[in-house]
Amino acid sequence: MRFQLTLLFAIASCLPAAKLEVSQLKPDEVKQGTAVASDGSDFLFAIESSRQPALFVDSEPAGPMQRSGSLWTWSGKLKTGRSHSFYYMVDGQRKGGKTDVAAYGPDSYAQPGVPQGKLSEKMEHTSKIYEGMKSDYWIYVPAQYDPGQRRRADGLAGRSGSDSTRRGDPCADRLR
Questions:
Q1: Measured in whole angstroms, how far is the alpha carbon of residue 102 from the centre of its chain?
Q2: Residues 42, 46, 50, CA angle at the centre, nearest 5°?
Q3: pLDDT in tens, 137-168
């Protein structure tokens, strides 16, 4: 099994990089220096600047940027399975950037033979505790979900003979 995985990664690393294009970026984000596109470990960063910017990813210089008019780009690979941060330095001043750029691994993408669930429309939660706080959220429903089949939310709840169902047990009391 280990040999097969190593071979799979070796083959995958020889495949051509995904084609990321500046046209995939939002123009206002390019101007602000917050534009980034990714596909797995392949990344494209772009900024509009009359002066040469230096891109820093995870507080380290990323390498020379390519110029096309007032547009500067850098493309390369970043480690997957984690979040990255970036910013630019232009004439000694920090500009743009983001602190939450996800680098998704292969398990984050659709796989052949894996059932596809459904994502709800965007919903909004308005806090009753923190005035003015609103959060957007979605609900993912796995393809295998059967609304007619009841499931227990907690494996301990309702077990006969279990100590966790006795009164006075702090864990059981929180489940009630």
A1: 4
A2: 155
A3: 999 999 989 888 876 665 555 555 554 445 55
